[in-house]
Design a protein that fits this description.
CATH topology of the largest domain: Transferase(Phosphotransferase), domain 1
Number of helices: 6
CATH class of the largest domain: Mainly Alpha
Number of strands: 13
Distance between the termini: 40 Å
Strand content: 25-35%
Helix content: 10-25%
Largest sheet: 6 strands, antiparallel
Shape: globular
Order of helices and strands: EEEEHEEEHHEEEEHEEHH
Strand order of the largest sheet: 1-2-3-4-6-5
CATH architecture of the largest domain: Orthogonal Bundle
Number of domains: 2
Structural class: alpha+beta
C-alpha cells in the first residue's frame, strides 16, 4: 500500500548520499514512479544508473527487476543490483541499479543529427530486436516511446529503457492498475507494445508524401499517410542486425 505522506515526490537526493553500495553523483531524470541518478561504487568500474522509487514498497520495481533479470540483449540495459533504501522520512523505497548509457533521447538525437534513412532503419531494427527479446520471455514493455529510447552517439546503439510499466505472464496484479488506453491495449484487449505494426513503424520511421525519412513523435506521424513497414525483415537484414 502506497503511503502518500512518505513519497519522495519532488525531493532529490543530496550528492554523495549512499543508496546501498552506490554513491549518488548527479540527477539523470525523473518519471512518475522513479527518479534516476548517476551513481558510482568502489566495487564497480564506471558509473551506473540508479533508479529509486518515488513511493515506498512500490511493486512495480519488483516486477521491473524480474523482467530485467530475464532479458539479455545489447539494446536493453543490464541489471546490476537491486535493493531497498530506508528514507529518513520513514519509507522503504526500492531501487534498481542498471548499466549506465551515455546517450540522449531518440527525438532529441534525431533533431540534432538529421539522420539518414539508413541510420533510421538501423535504429528501427535495434528497437525491434529489443522488443523481440522482451517478448521471448513472455513479457511486454507497455511504454514504448521516444523518451524511453536512448541513442548512444559514440556508436549509434539504441537502448530501450524503463520497464517499470512492463508485465510478464506470471506477474502479480499491479497495485495501482494503469488505465487501458489505445497505447497499451491491442484490438482484442490484450496487452501489447506496439498495437498495429503501422503505429510502431511511425514511432521511428515516417515515410511522408514529400519524400525522405524523418523521425516524428507518434501523434505527429499519425497525421500523415505512412506505408506499412514489416519489422522482421529489418532484423534479418545483414547490415541492420539488432
Amino acid at each position: 500500500m502506497v503511503t502518500p505522506a512518505l513519497e519522495l515526490g519532488s525531493t532529490v537526493l543530496p550528492l554523495e548520499l549512499k543508496v546501498g553500495a552506490w554513491r549518488v553523483q548527479s540527477l539523470r531524470g525523473r518519471g512518475t514512479y522513479g527518479i534516476v541518478y548517476r551513481a558510482v561504487s568502489q566495487e564497480h568500474p564506471g558509473p551506473v544508473a540508479l533508479k529509486l522509487s518515488v513511493y515506498p514498497a512500490d511493486e512495480r520495481f519488483e516486477r521491473e527487476v524480474e523482467l530485467l533479470s530475464r532479458i539479455r540483449h545489447p539494446s536493453v540495459p543490464r541489471l546490476l543490483d537491486a535493493g531497498v533504501w530506508q528514507s529518513p522520512l520513514g519509507g522503504a523505497h526500492p531501487f534498481i541499479v542498471m548499466e549506465w548509457v551515455e546517450g540522449e533521447p531518440l527525438y532529441a538525437w534525431a533533431a540534432r543529427r538529421n539522420p539518414s534513412s539508413r541510420q533510421v532503419l538501423a535504429l528501427l531494427a535495434q528497437a525491434a530486436g529489443a522488443l523481440q527479446a522482451i517478448h521471448e520471455v513472455n513479457a511486454v514493455h507497455r511504454d514504448v516511446k521516444g523518451d524511453n529510447m536512448l541513442v548512444r552517439p559514440s556508436d549509434g546503439r539504441l537502448f530501450l529503457t524503463d520497464l517499470g510499466a512492463g508485465y510478464f505472464a506470471e506477474a502479480a496484479r499491479r497495485a495501482h492498475p494503469r488505465p487501458r488506453t489505445r497505447a497499451n491495449v491491442g484490438s482484442r484487449g490484450a496487452m501489447t507494445d506496439a498495437g498495429p505494426r503501422l503505429r510502431f513503424a511511425c514511432l521511428l520511421l515516417g515515410s511522408l508524401p514529400f519524400g525522405g525519412f524523418v523521425l516524428l513523435p507518434l501523434q505527429q506521424a499519425a497525421r500523415h499517410r505512412v506505408k506499412r513497414v514489416p519489422l522482421q525483415p529489418l532484423i534479418r537484414a545483414g547490415a541492420l542486425s539488432p
